[in-house]
Amino acid sequence: MADQADVYKYFEPTVQLNNLALSNIHTLASWGVGTAAGILGLTGWNGFIFFVINWIAISALVFFVKCKGDSSVYFKSSFMDVAGTPMFNTLLSYVLVWTLMHALVYIYD
């Protein structure tokens, strides 16, 4: 009987809307962080470390500010939806913006 209660625990359109909002937050943040990394002139592993540090900070902000410390209310798989799942999706956007901004700023050095 408990398994049947878990099926009705989440309203799927609301969960999808939450996932869309989270995806937008992470995508826009990765563009901003990529722009900052490119302008700062970070190269190699320094740029990836910069991304990971900012990813942890942004995920913590989303978890504590937007989810009020309990992400299981808004997402099905709790903290992994907030921090883990969208990381690889936005890493490519970060690298694209990072290299673009680095090339634009440091092209004539």
Structural write-up:
The chain has 109 residues and is an all-alpha fold. The chain has one domain. It is built from 5 helices and no strands. Helix 2 (12-40) packs antiparallel against helix 3 (45-66) and helix 2 runs parallel beside helix 5 (87-105). The longest helix is centred in the N-terminal third of the chain and has 29 residues, at 12-40. The termini are far apart.
Short account of what is shown:
The chain is mainly α.
Mean pLDDT: 84
Shape: elongated
Q: Please estimate the helix content.
A: over 70%
| Content of β-strand | under 5%
Q: Determine Rg (CA atoms, Å).
A: 17 Å
- Runs in which pLDDT lies below 50 for 5 or more consecutive residues are none
Q: How far is the first residue's CA from the last residue's CA?
A: 67 Å
Order of helices and strands: HHHHH
**Derived structural class:** mainly alpha
Question: How is the main sheet built?
Answer: none
Note the topology.
Blueprint: H1 2-7, H2 12-40, H3 45-66, H4 79-84, H5 87-105
Structural features:
109 residues, elongated
